[in-house]
Amino acid sequence: MSRKIIFLFVIIYGLQNTLVAQVSVKGDVKDLRGEPLSGAHVSLQPSSHFSITDLQGIFEIPNVAAGNYVLTITYLGAKTYRDNVIVGKEELNLSFTLEDDLLNLQNIVVTGTFDPRTQLESSTAITTLESEALQETFPRGTADLLQAIPGTFTDPSAGEVFTKVYARGISASAEDDTGWYYVSLQEDGLPVSLVQHSYYSPEIFQRVDLTTERVEAIRGGSAAITALNGPGGIYNFISRGPQDQFGGEIQLQGGVQGEGNPLYRIDGNVGGPLGNNWFFNAGGHYRHDDGARNVDFTFSKGGQFRANVIKKTKSGYFKFYAKVLDDFTNRWTGVAATDWNDPKAAFGQDFNTTALLMPSFEANVPDGRRLDKGATNRFDPSQGLHAQDRAFGVDILQDLGNQWSLRFAIKYAHKNANWQTSISNAFVSLNDPLAYFISGAQFPIGQVVFNDARSGVELARLDNSGILAGESIEYLGQGTLSNDAIMGTASWLKQNSTDELVNQLTVRKKAENHDLTMGLASGFADTSLFTQGSFGYVTYEPNPRMLQVTLENPGEPVLTLSDTHGLSNYGGLFYDVSQADVRQMAAFLNDRWEIQDGLHLDMGLRYETIGHKGSKDRSAPFQKDGGYDGDPTTAYDNSILTSTGEQDTFDYTYGYLSYSAGLNYRLREEAAIFARFSSGNKAPELNYYFNNFSNVPINQKGEVQKIKQAEIGLKWNQKDFSFTTTAFWSQLKDIGIASFEFDSDDGSVFYTPVQFNNSRTLGLEWESAYSPISALTFRFNGTLQNPIATKWTVYDAGGTVATADDSTTDFSDNLLPFNPKLMFNLSAEYRKDRFNTFLKWQFMGEREGNVANAFQLPAYSIFNLGMGYAINKHLSADVLVTNLFNSEGLANFFGANSFGASANGATHEFIQDNPDASFVVVPVLPRGAILKLGYRF
């Protein structure tokens, strides 16, 4: 036999044995209760082989060459499993049982860290909400969902938008209209929105549905060096990843809220392989919601679609993703109350059902930007907020060899947030001259007639001739208005548009004892806004009606104080035309140094610059005899604000260095202690320019707020008991505060001069879970804290633009408002065979309603209940009930019940002088119940 033939025989024999040696590794994965775990990730290292378990918990990895491997199984909610396996010539068929990971401490997290690691190994406080927990939440928005996270204060009382979220007392600039001021709301590691200003915050463009796999949240800590201008924390919503078998889920939901208001919703998600290591995932939702309180229009409708396509390679992956959001919703405003010590609903209103919003109508208001062209803006308060987001991006991770890797993520988005709603709902007495002069008429004195704008029926006729002398009005005839008042409210037309591009490049090098990460992040946004406000004549009663108002003095022409819909003082209350270009650049460097086995030191630096360049139009009332339409008998169009042609420009850049260092020491396999100190910065948001300068030069930049935080914590993970506890200290300096005010003399709206203040919070947060038997789990998390306003002054404008009567009050060392000393969540969960149920108790402690500490929002409790049953392996049914006992807890406080009042105006002296006065509070949302039918395939 020749050498060539022998050589060929050896090659063929080797190939044959290689082919024979490629076998399948199969198995099933269950939990301690014997239930199959669907969606568990199974991988073999070193190799690119992986699989994901199906509905029966079964996986198969084909074509595995003979050799020694490390098999790893990860499942959110279960402890990570690792073991050595030997693959030979025979097919392997294995069975695994995963222990519960009650707090997900052994699961990999990617938020607030440059290198993925388990929660136990992280040197910061992290909480993970897995998909099971997300499905146990009543669908009321992002902020409502985040109430389950310790150390986090949320106020979702307004609904899905206009919410507040902050952590560890870092809260002062988190106002109702910019409630996410200090934190970064993210989707898959990139911010949902690059910019914030009044009525434009990130939760407007974020919705939770079946396309979300989990939420990772950190409070403070490493957010100072890992987030763009979000040092207070990161809340990262992570999308579903690839699955190697085609499958999905559909959910049909139907329920009621409040007094039987219906809610309908459909969610769906589907994913699977496309061949040649390509995978896809797509889904979204649509909903129709009449609202938790009583209005005469659909409160929310619309939905979103999200999709991603992933190509897995031997050295990493390429991911392409997109989102389309088109959604209408609104926000709940305050309700009147009396009794400062024990608030009770007033004027026939109800904390659970009353919504003091304008009813539905359609009007056309002259556009102050284009009066010369006869342009108008359609206004219909039933539209609320129309949020649109068109986003697409790319995420690339590649192993470069020699322990080098690179990740690059980039996203472009076009966003619109257009508001058509009402702002304020204060009591305005018919004995107050404001009720008539706010119409824009020069002298609206005499016989005033109020007609129902929808039916045309006369409701009341009165004589206000003596009102300027302090005399009361006199009704003429039998008709009266409810509570002898109208509502101090305005139409709120706000058009916002933004184009933004955000990206992050990270390069990582792993060495023997070091894990070094360096990178660049940038964001560019082009945003514009137009705001216009007109007064609305509305009845002051639980179901408000629009009023058509006329002045009908004998022998004189009829003077219309409102249009046929009830709008008055067209475009005379608010006018803002602004635009800005925002550029953010950051460079960062981080090293994770393994000092010794089990002891790691994290050290990171971040230098960030943020540039704001833009302009704000000056405005003045339109001047023309007879007003805009030239008709002297129509008083409602006499004071339209329009641009003067002048602009105030701004071009400021903020640069700062942030740093963070943390230690993690693994005491044993199941326990670790950690400590961290961070120094971060918060650059001003665009509301600084848009709100604080009215017809005056923008001649100074805003102040960068300085945030210092320290924390030390313990994480412990046992088979049936897990807990984490963290003691923290946070300090916030240079807080710019300005108040929204109303000048009763000329009817204008303005913001007071900015005051710079400081705060400090000491606290303890904890998260624990105990499972005495495999079917039953108790969970307890919460926060105990002492928030102090260490330096705090409030500017009092005296109710007028004039500065002669202004004063400043010092409230230093008072408790920080809206921060409870105690808040917690306690729950019991039972899962056995096909049945599951839970009961959750959310406790919110007493909070100060303002920095004067003159009014306290009482503590309240909310109980949520859920029950579910798996009918078969595909079909399931669940019932969720939120606010089971219909708690009337109060979440927010807006101050005295008068037009333009603010919370800080309710001082001890004011309350003492006005013990019977009414004030405005925002109650928590009432009971809601929903039935969910799910089908998995």
TrEMBL record:
It is found in: Cell outer membrane. Coiled coil: none annotated. The keyword Transit peptide does not apply. GO terms for molecular function: siderophore uptake transmembrane transporter activity. It comes from the Bacteria. Residues 366-884 form the TonB-dependent receptor-like beta-barrel domain. Keywords: Cell outer membrane, Ion transport, Iron, Iron transport, Membrane, Receptor, Signal, TonB box, Transmembrane, Transmembrane beta strand, Transport. This is Outer membrane receptor proteins, mostly Fe transport.
